[in-house]
From TrEMBL:
Any Gene Ontology biological process: fatty acid biosynthetic process
EC identifiers of the protein: 2.3.1.179
Protein's recorded name: 3-oxoacyl-[acyl-carrier-protein] synthase 2
Role this protein plays: Involved in the type II fatty acid elongation cycle. Catalyzes the elongation of a wide range of acyl-ACP by the addition of two carbons from malonyl-ACP to an acyl acceptor. Can efficiently catalyze the conversion of palmitoleoyl-ACP (cis-hexadec-9-enoyl-ACP) to cis-vaccenoyl-ACP (cis-octadec-11-enoyl-ACP), an essential step in the thermal regulation of fatty acid composition.
Amino acid sequence: MKLHRVVVTGMAAVTPLGNDLATSWTNLLGGVSGAGPITRFDPTGFDTTFACEVKGFDPSPFIPAKQAKRLDLFAQYAVAASLMAIKDADLAITPELAPHVGTIIGCGMGGLSTIEEQHKKLLAGGPSRVSPFFIPVLIANMAAGQAAIFTGAKGPNVCTTTACASGAHGVGYAYTDIMLGRSKAMICGGVESTIAVLAVSGFNALKALSTRNDDPKRASRPFDKERTGFVIGEGAGILVLEELEFAKARGARILAEVVGFGASGDAFHMTAPPESGEGMALAMGAALRESGLKPEEIDCVNAHGTSTQLNDACETKAVKTVFGSHAHKLSVTANKSMIGHCLGAAGAIESVFSIKSIMEQVVPPTINYTTPDPDCDLDYTPGEPRKREVRAVMNNSFGFGGTNASVVFKRFE
C-alpha cells in the first residue's frame, strides 16, 4: 500500500479570543485572556462564576436564520469554522470531488444546553412540548454532519468523541484517512459549547475548575505552582487537510505538513492520569516515531496544559520521558492560559495555533506563569511570545477515560 503525504491548506477558528483566526491569533500573541464572568446563565451560588466564552458570535454570515434556530451553538461554530477554512484553502468541492472529501470533527459532549432547555419544557408542559428537533440538534456528530451539509462534502462523515482529546483525534484520524489513500481532502478538527448549568455544576463537583472568581483573567495558569484548576472554554478549530499531490495539482497554498499521529490509553482511572505520565508518553512517542523526526528536530510542544495540579506535572514528566535531554531545549506553550479549556475543541484549536507558529516562526506565550513549580521545570515560554526557529511542533491532548493523542506538524519542504 502506498502511503501519501498530507498537508494543511486551510484553517479557521472561533475562540474566546476572537470569532476568526486572525483576531484569535493576534490576541494569543498579545497575551490576552479570554476569561470573564459567565453570561450564558446566572452563576450566582456556583463555586465558579467565570468562563472563557466566545463573544458576540453571529451565525448569519454562514447560516440562514431559520436553519440557525435548529442548530445548537456547537454546530453553528462548526459550520462557521468549516466554511471559513474551506475559503482559506480556496477549495471548490465540486460534485466530482465531493465523494473524496470527508468531515471528521471531534466533539466531547454535544448539545448540553439543548438538553437543559428541552428538559425544562418537558417538566413544564409534558412530552408534547419537546421539540421534534431535540435529538438531531443535540447529538455530537451533528457538527460533522452539518459541516458536510453546508460544504457539500460526501466522503467519510465522522465524530470523534474522546472527551478533551476529541479535536486532536479528529485531526489525527483525518490525516490517517488521507495517508492511506481513502480520501483526497478532509475537513477536520473539533468543537464544543458546554458553558451550561450542568457542565459547570459537574466540573465543580469534580473540583476540576478554578474558583478564582475575584481574578478570572489570571485563573488559568498552566504549570504554575499556584494553579487551582482549569477554566472552561468553548469554540471550534477546523483544518483542511489534503493529499500532497492533489494539493499541488490544484495549485493550493500549503501551510504545513502533518507527519505524525499517536494515540494511547492509560488503562488506569476514569479522570486521573497515572503520576508517571506513561499514557501521555506512549502517544507522544508514537507520534514522534511516525514523523521520522529526531527529538531535537521538534522545536515546540503545544501542551495540553490544563492548569490542574496532576495533569501539568504528568505532562511534564511525559515530555522528559520522550525527549530526554532535549526536553529542556523545547519551547513549551500552553494556549489554555488564554483560551481556557475548550474541551472537545481544544486539540483542534491548538493544532491551528501550532501551525501558525510554524508559519510565523514564533511561539505564543504561556500567561499567568509567575511561580515556578519544582514538578514543572521546563521552559513554558512565560509572559511573552518568542521569535525562534520553529521547524516542527508536537501538539498534545489528553482526556477523561485515559485517552491520549499527539499530532506532529512540520514546516513543508
